[in-house]
Each structure stands twice: as structure tokens, then as C-alpha cells.
Specification:
The protein has 2 domains: 98 residues; 139 residues, Gcn5-related N-acetyltransferase (GNAT) (Aminopeptidase, 3-Layer(aba) Sandwich), CATH 3.40.630.30. 32% of the residues lie in helices and 31% in strands. It has 7 helices and 11 strands. It has an 11-stranded mixed sheet with strand order 1-2-3-4-11-5-10-9-8-7-6, with helices on both faces. β3, α2 and β4 form a beta-alpha-beta unit.
């Protein structure tokens, strides 16, 4: 499989991390998930040619956020129609959350295991409760993640990497959708950072995804997260494209 296109990565990511509620307007996708993660609580356009009546459509989907008690968010990717971007600019929504998307073709895993890892069904509390604890989530966000995981329609695994005392040190979530493995919820315990636990978790996730039939991989990373970018690059990921979010400015 050649390197995936932006459309292939974005549609795989939509499947791998679904919203709890969703709606479609042409090739625009609206999703909401109790406000947890912009990925699952935003509008995005999947067709650069689908920009007709953008202002009206933006207003309709904004109203959906209001009905769910959420602030509207638009994810701007290379697939965003110029008409949609013009409509966002016209209402002066502010940019935030600049991120990179990295991708690679799947590779054989030749890394020597440095830390013990284990695979879980991520709906199992043994994984999602530990991931929530490592991430410092409160009860509301932890429950939101659990609900999202219950709705993932494709094959997925949660990975934990352990220290020598059996303490969970890092977590990774991986799912395979349409032949593309998508990685997220990557977190290392603060006291264990810089010791290779995140790398161990990612290597285990990549190995599982390859065995599950993935031919390519994609991961999203915040533009300023230099340690994560360095890690993913060392694993074989390369820059594919960028995205950011837009939201209404606070009322003055």
C-alpha cells in the first residue's frame, strides 16, 4: 500500500475515534462526545469541492453544538473546502490546536523489547482506567473516554508498558480501520518519562497492528510536542500534513 492520502487518514481516524453523536451535511461531518477531545467534538469537511452554502451549513451545525451544551469547533485540514474556510473567516473564529499528522508504511518490528508490555481490549477497565489515571483525568473525562471506546466499530487494542516493579508506566491506544492503523491516547507517567516506556508501548502497538492487517499507519501530534515528534520520527513516521482547529472568539 502506498502512503495513505489525507482523506484515507482522516476517514480512518473518524472510525478509530468516533463521536457519541454525529451528523452529516454533504461531505461535512459533525461529531460530539461530551466535549472530550477536539477530534470527537468538531466539524470537518472531507471534500475540498464541497463549499456551497457554507455559511448556512456552518450555522446549522453550530446550532447542533448549542443543543448539546458545547462550544462549536471546526477542524481545518487540507480537505477543507475554500468556501468553508471563507465562512469561518467571515465569523472570525480563532485558530488553536495546531498539529501535525505523521504517517508511514507498516514495517517489520526489529526492536529488542526493553520493557514488558501487554495488550488489552481497551474497553476493559484494566486498560482505560489506567490510561485515565496516567493522563490525570477526572471522573467526567474518564467516563467520556469509556463511552467513546464502547463505540469504536473497528478492531482496537490498548497497550500498557510496565516498569520492573510491575507499575504501568505508559499507555497507547491503536485501532485498524480500512487498512490503516491509527494511534492515540499515548501517555507516559510523569515520573517515568525519558526511560523508553512510550517507545515500548508504541512498538507493541505497531506490531499488533501489522499482525492485524494494517498496511499503513497514521498518528496526530501537537505541533509543539517535540519529544513525541522525535519519538514517532525514530519509529519511521514522516510528516504528511498539518491541521488546526477554529472556534468562536470569547464574547467581549
Amino acid at each position: 500500500m502506498p502512503l495513505p492520502t489525507a482523506l484515507q487518514i482522516e476517514t480512518a481516524a473518524l472510525t478509530a475515534w468516533p463521536g457519541l453523536f454525529s451528523a452529516n451535511d454533504g461531505h461535512w461531518v459533525w461529531r460530539a462526545a461530551r466535549g472530550y477531545s477536539n477530534r470527537a467534538n468538531s466539524i470537518q469537511c472531507l471534500d475540498p469541492g464541497d463549499g456551497a452554502d457554507a455559511a448556512v451549513r456552518l450555522g446549522r451545525l453550530t446550532d447542533l453544538f448549542t443543543r448539546h451544551g458545547l462550544s462549536p469547533v471546526f477542524k481545518v485540514t487540507p480537505l477543507t473546502a475554500p468556501g468553508a474556510l471563507a465562512a469561518i473567516d467571515a465569523v472570525d473564529w480563532s485558530p488553536f490546536g495546531h498539529s501535525h499528522v505523521l504517517c508511514m508504511q507498516m514495517r517489520a518490528n526489529t526492536a529488542e523489547p526493553r520493557h514488558h508490555t501487554a495488550l488489552f481490549d481497551p474497553r476493559d477497565p484494566q486498560w482505560h482506567c489506567v490510561q485515565a489515571e496516567l493522563s490525570g483525568y477526572g471522573d467526567y473525562d474518564a467516563e467520556s473516554v469509556r463511552l467513546i471506546l464502547e463505540r469504536v466499530p473497528c478492531d482496537q487494542r490498548g497497550v500498557l508498558a510496565y516498569d520492573a516493579n510491575g507499575v504501568p508506566a505508559a499507555a497507547v491506544l491503536v485501532a485498524v480501520a480500512n487498512g490503516i492503523s491509527i494511534y492515540g491516547n499515548v501517555v507516559t507517567r510523569a515520573s517515568h518519562r525519558g526511560q523508553g516506556f512510550g517507545r515500548a508501548g508504541m512498538n507493541a502497538a505497531i506490531a499488533w497492528a501489522r499482525d492485524a492487517g494494517a498496511l499503513a499507519a497514521g498518528i496526530q501530534v501537537a505541533a509543539g510536542n517535540t519529544p513525541a515528534i522525535k519519538l514517532y520520527s525514530s519509529l519511521g513516521f514522516a510528516h504528511a500534513y498539518d491541521y488546526h482547529y477554529r472556534k468562536p472568539q470569547p464574547a467581549k
